[in-house]
Amino acid sequence: MFEGFTRTEIKTSGARIVTVHGGKGPPVLLMHGNPFSHVSWHKVAPRLAQEFTVVATDLRGYGDSEKPPGGDDHSGYSFRTMAQDQVEVMAALGFDKFYAAGHDRGARVLHRMCLDHPEKVTRAAILDIIPQHRLTISPSG
After folding, report:
1. From CA 25, how far away is CA 9, in angstroms rounded?
2. pTM over 0.90
3. Contact 42/15 with Cβ under 8 angstroms?
4. According to DSSP H, which parts of the chain are helical?
5. CA dihedral (50, 5, 109, 36) positive or negative
6. Which residue, 6, 85, 97, 136, is the most exposed by fewest CB within 10 angstroms?
């Protein structure tokens, strides 16, 4: 699985993130959903790698990435914090701007990334979430 890809661990300001990357062309970041890991991209990544430099990560707390304490307010696992990890991973690999795709939890991380770092994400594919600005919470939960 992931033949021709390089597996590495990148230390961000908040966690050690497991990453596989390979291919050639413009960079694209792939972020998995819950309860998965980067392995969920194993069928599509090699095909994308024919035209893109593919980076697939385990989000903090998932797979083989570090699972740091969340803190009293759980901010250690906020979408903002997880997005920062991913931006730092891409910078460590030499990518200031990149395409990105996220599924489920990864899509929420990507949505936050687009809000916090619009200059980094040139195109985004947000899969299988309802846009957060459309959500309403009923009093019954």
Report:
1. 22
2. yes
3. no
4. 45-48, 79-92, 105-116
5. positive
6. 136
